[in-house]
Amino acid sequence: MSELTVRPMHAAVMIGRCVRLSRRNIDALLTSLLLPVILMLLFVYLFGGAIETGSAYVTYVVPGVLLLCAGFGAAGTAVSVTTDLTNGMIERLRTMDVGATSILAGHVVASVARNAVSTVLVLGVAVAIGFRPAVAPLRWLAAAGVLLLFLLAVSWLSAAFGLLARTPEAANGYTFLVMFLPYPSSAFVPVETMPSWLRGFAEHQPVTPVIESLRGLLLDTPVGTAPTQAAAWCLGLLALAMLLSALLFPRRVA
To answer: Which residue ranges traverse the bilayer (predicted)?
Structure first.
């Protein structure tokens, strides 16, 4: 069977397995769920009064925190993939004719599910402390679509990092890039306030258009071309991650 062939039954079993593993790993689950909330409260109540954004800081910062959720969840994906490689689980699955795509899809979908729960939790706490999003259903659906596309992209990218790493500790380190990207972006401060050398990077990296899309859609403000740029970045990263995964998997299990 081709490594790229997806068998729905195999994929469903792998998804169920990864979701159960996530549920049982209480420490990692609580970290991925609660850390974004703690960081949001930290930014809002410790730094929010000193940062001028033209609106209540909680209103400005929520979209960036939602992307932090994706970064924390992605770290768990990379570690899980590497753990399966190092403890022999993937070799056992391959003896049962389970393909690479089905195995990795389980980790990716479990990551998206974790991030969905974390997103709902962050939004609930944000509303409790003053965040007031738009109520138009179509804008909510559009924002959910942008966020889902970003989650898929970073989850597959993290799965590729997991295939690249030789140990779970290294896999966790590789995902630092994903977790770091929201900081030099428009997530926490307007890019106009940054030094010119940093502003250029912040304006032309994948996270900023995703954040601006979410901010505009959730707050019912103009979004311009941000959704198009966000979709292009996410689809490009998703294609790259899937290609890397297809190339790396046979080499790791050979």
So the answer is: 29-51, 57-82, 103-129, 141-164, 171-191, 230-249
Measured in whole angstroms, the distance separating CA 152 from the mean position of its chain's CA atoms is: 7
Which pLDDT belongs to residue 150? 94
pLDDT of residue 6: 57
Cα distance between residue 127 and residue 165, in whole Å: 39
Nearest to 158 by CA among 170, 147, 146: 170
In the chain, the number of structural domains is 1
Q: How far apart are CA 249 and CA 165, in angstroms?
A: 12
Residue-range definition of the domain harbouring residue 75: 2-253
pLDDT in tens, 1-46: 444 555 677 778 888 888 888 778 777 777 777 888 888 898 888 8
**Distance (Å, rounded) from C-alpha 85 to C-alpha 245?**
13
d(CA 140, CA 148): 12
Q: For residues 115 and 221, what is the distance between their CA atoms, to the nearest angstrom?
A: 25
pLDDT of res. 216: 93
